[in-house]
Design goal:
Length: 279
């Protein structure tokens, strides 16, 4: 059907807004691979970059190979072979493929401190191997959006998600914090672009790491990098989103607006990147 549609319409290019196929995040790269097969230009990152960044363990391995700091992690199989001494800090269990804080339910325990607890949590899932565990970094959470510009990638203003949580509550941006507007978590995780002068060195370092991620993962068009920063200002990359949401209320558009880019300018940048690829 896709081949027939392409032959009938002969599109100049495709704007790739697909976040899942059949409600399955691990198929997110299939659209770009098909576009490549049918030789149709498309917006944003390449199929290869989409796959490399969306498989979270593969992504983290690629970060480590290229000197990008990321929290400690174990796949389910690696955890089975791990020694108890390797679990030195609390870990949380995350989906290997899904985004949007899938599986991080704040009504349940999110942090686990032993191998046994982690295995028990992962084995509650229908497919344990579709999940992995990641070291919890207690500290601050940032996300940096990057967009192609006339002189190369441009890092948009740094956004911090500020946790207005009591001290005993883990600073985790879970499902409720992102999606349930009436919840305590949603109301007390606030995006901010305002920083004191003392944060300037940290903000510059975050920008450098975001640009390194752009280069190492061969990103293009637009993307977002999610960070945690511990209490000693050590920077950790959590994830790279090679196809971030560009809806009007999303973080990417908020950062673009903060940079003085209108919605029209964002679209022009994205489409301009496609035209450069075509030529």
């Amino acid at each position: 059907q896709l081949e027939q549609l392409i032959r009938q319409t002969e599109p100049a290019f495709v704007v790739n807004l697909v976040e899942t196929l059949f409600a399955d995040g691990k198929l997110v790269h299939m659209g770009p691979f098909l576009f490549d097969h049918f030789k149709v230009a498309y917006a944003g990152c390449s199929a290869h970059s989409m796959y490399l960044s969306s498989h979270k363990i593969l992504s983290k391995q690629h970060m480590r190979m290229n000197g990008i700091n990321t929290p400690a992690f174990f796949s389910y199989r690696d955890l089975l072979k791990a020694k108890e001494t390797q679990i030195q800090k609390p870990f949380l269990v995350k989906s290997l493929w899904e985004h949007a804080s899938y599986g991080l339910d704040e009504n349940k325990t999110l942090l686990f401190s032993t191998k046994e607890e982690l295995l028990d949590r992962m084995e509650q899932e229908t497919n344990s191997e579709a999940f992995f565990c990641e070291e919890y970094i207690h500290g601050r959470e940032f996300n940096l959006s990057v967009i192609d510009g006339p002189n190369g990638p441009e890092v948009l203003p740094v956004a911090e998600i500020r946790f207005e949580y009591p001290p005993e509550k883990p600073r985790i941006l879970g499902y409720k914090a992102k999606w349930e507007e009436d919840s305590f978590e949603y109301k007390h995780t606030v995006r901010s672009f305002n920083f004191p002068g003392k944060d300037n060195p940290l903000l510059l370092d975050l920008e450098k790491v975001a640009l390194k991620c752009w280069k190492v993962f061969d990103l293009s068009g637009y993307a977002r990098v999610d960070f945690r920063v511990d209490e000693n200002d050590n920077i950790f990359v959590l994830e790279i989103n090679a196809n971030p949401c560009i809806s009007p209320d999303g973080g990417f558009v908020a950062a673009a607006c903060r940079a003085g880019l209108s919605d029209e300018e964002v679209v022009k940048r994205i489409v301009g990147g496609i035209k450069k690829t075509i030529t």
